């Protein structure tokens, strides 16, 4: 492929329909993955993990807590990534918050092996997040804050996110059995591995 072909490829844009179906699929998949996660009483990283801990400890619905926890981060999202990205992220979070409350009434597990459930969460949610990211959306949260800190201080966004996750899982060690924390960490590793391997701008040129 020549330079001109590469430039043309880089200009490819998703249509509105493509964005809608991609984000809808992504949100549905993420919510389905969280059915496995919450049924097992596990957590994950980022603001979803924070919301899960608050939900488990307080007894409030995860969907409501997840929605509220993300609100302060929209300011960072707007200033770091723009209005369109912020709107897409807010829609994703709102739909996710609704679906995670509805889906458990539609799926009943007679028995769910923790290892299988952890794999299912990591794989299904990872695929869902990948779809959302590829259509310039997100599930809100610490990622935007990390990008803002990087912009202001040159401290790498990835390190900020890792520190946030360390705080989440570190707190979980004092609140939940070690086995649950271990399974939670495994699920988070699987999820992030799927995104890291499959989300590469040099391999995926559509925007």
Structural description of this entry:
The chain is mainly α. Helices cover 74% and strands 0% of the residues. The chain has helices spanning 3-10, 16-39, 46-58, 62-70, 73-81, 83-102, 114-134, 142-153, 157-173, 178-198. α3 packs across α4, α5 runs antiparallel to α6 (83-102) and α7 packs parallel to α10.
For the terminal residues, how far apart are their CA atoms?
Answer: 19 Å
Main β-sheet description: none
Number of domains: 1
pLDDT < 50 runs, ≥5 residues: 1-9
Radius of gyration, whole Å: 17 Å
Strand content: under 5%
List keywords for this structure.
single chain, 207 residues, 10 helices, globular
Question: What topology does this entry show?
Answer:
Layout: H1 3-10, H2 16-39, H3 46-58, H4 62-70, H5 73-81, H6 83-102, H7 114-134, H8 142-153, H9 157-173, H10 178-198
Helix pairs in contact: 2-6, 2-7, 3-4, 3-9, 4-6, 5-6, 5-8, 7-10, 8-9
């Amino acid at each position: 492929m020549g330079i001109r072909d590469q430039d043309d490829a880089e200009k490819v844009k998703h249509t509105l329909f493509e964005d809608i179906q991609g984000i809808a699929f992504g949100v549905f998949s993420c919510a389905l993955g969280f059915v496995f996660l919450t049924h097992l009483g596990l957590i994950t990283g980022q603001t979803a993990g924070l919301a899960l801990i608050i939900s488990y400890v307080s007894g409030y619905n995860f969907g409501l807590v997840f929605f509220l926890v993300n609100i302060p981060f929209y300011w960072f999202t707007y200033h770091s990534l723009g209005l369109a990205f912020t709107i897409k992220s807010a829609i994703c979070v709102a739909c996710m918050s609704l679906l995670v409350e509805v889906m458990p009434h539609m799926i009943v597990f007679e028995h769910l092996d923790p290892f299988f459930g952890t794999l299912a969460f990591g794989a299904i949610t990872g695929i869902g997040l990948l779809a959302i990211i590829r259509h310039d959306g997100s599930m809100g949260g610490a990622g935007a804050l990390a990008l803002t800190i990087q912009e202001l201080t040159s401290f790498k966004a990835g390190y900020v996110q890792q520190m946030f996750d360390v705080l989440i899982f570190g707190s979980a060690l004092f609140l939940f059995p070690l086995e649950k924390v271990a399974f939670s960490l495994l699920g988070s590793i699987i999820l992030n591995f799927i995104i890291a391997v499959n989300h590469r701008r040099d391999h995926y040129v559509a925007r």
